[in-house]
């Protein structure tokens, strides 16, 4: 499973990119609004920082397919890393189909059922984003949805990649990986949490102490 970061904060992207683990970036309108910056400016900077990453998702807000295709024009011109993030609606499917014909990658977002994922894949989506945390919030099993989509895609040889989205904590990451997600897009905080273990910290401290004792008396 690959790691994307779910943020529009360029400092967070720069930091995680420096760790060598970053395969992509996802943004959404709420995250861009939080950054307080102009959309195309922030996308340009993200694409510059994220050297070597496969995808930077930029979401369109139009309700109709024609509007989505138009809205995406300046975004896809920024870089070939840009993946257009499209909402899961019939107009979104039409737009995904149109983008696929132009060789433009899409990430269909706000997926909450396996049928939605299958429809998005058949329209030509490069990625589908089932939202784990938001399903858990309403007492549905987000992890089980990832497993279901993964089994269906495997059974029918569908090569659309599954992005586990709306990930809230490290356990979600393990569960998404075990359930067959190709990618998890994670908030900065969760990416940091994956690295930490108290026994690692204690072990580093003990090695240093023992070394100093042996060498400095
Ligand atoms: C995914 O692409 C979305 O940006 C994101 O994961 C949504 O997460 P949230 O439910 O924490 O807002």
From TrEMBL:
Record-annotated active site: 85 (schiff-base intermediate with substrate)
The first-level EC class reads transferase
Keywords of the record: Cytoplasm, Pentose shunt, Schiff base, Transferase
Reactions catalysed:
D-sedoheptulose 7-phosphate + D-glyceraldehyde 3-phosphate = D-erythrose 4-phosphate + beta-D-fructose 6-phosphate
Please state where this protein is localized.
Cytoplasm
Matches recorded under Pfam families: TAL_FSA
Q: State the EC number(s).
A: 2.2.1.2
Pathway given in the UniProt record: Carbohydrate degradation; pentose phosphate pathway; D-glyceraldehyde 3-phosphate and beta-D-fructose 6-phosphate from D-ribose 5-phosphate and D-xylulose 5-phosphate (non-oxidative stage): step 2/3
Family according to the record:
Belongs to the transaldolase family. Type 3B subfamily.
Described by its record, this protein's role is as follows: Transaldolase is important for the balance of metabolites in the pentose-phosphate pathway.
What protein name applies here?
Answer: Probable transaldolase
- Taxonomic lineage: Bacteria, Bacillati, Bacillota, Bacilli, Bacillales
């Amino acid at each position: 499973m690959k790691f994307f970061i779910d943020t529009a904060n360029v400092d967070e992207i720069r930091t995680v990119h420096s760790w060598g683990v970053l395969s992509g970036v996802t943004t959404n309108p709420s995250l861009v609004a939080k950054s307080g910056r102009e959309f195309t400016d922030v996308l340009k900077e993200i694409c510059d920082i994220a050297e070597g990453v496969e995808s930077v998702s930029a979401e369109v807000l139009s309700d109709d397919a024609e509007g989505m295709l138009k809205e995406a024009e300046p975004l896809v011109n920024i870089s070939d890393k840009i993946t257009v993030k499209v909402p899961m609606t019939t107009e979104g499917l039409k737009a995904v189909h149109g983008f696929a014909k132009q060789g433009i990658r899409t990430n269909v977002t706000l997926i909450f059922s396996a049928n939605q994922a299958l429809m998005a894949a058949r329209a030509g989506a490069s990625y589908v984003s089932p939202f784990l945390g938001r399903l858990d919030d309403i007492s549905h099993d987000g992890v089980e949805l990832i497993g279901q989509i993964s089994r269906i895609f495997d059974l029918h040889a569908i090569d659309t990649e599954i992005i586990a989205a709306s990930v809230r904590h490290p356990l979600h990451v393990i569960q998404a990986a075990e359930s067959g997600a190709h990618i998890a897009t994670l908030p900065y905080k969760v990416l940091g949490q994956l690295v930490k273990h108290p026994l690692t910290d204690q072990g580093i401290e003990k090695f240093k102490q023992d070394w100093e004792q042996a060498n400095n008396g």
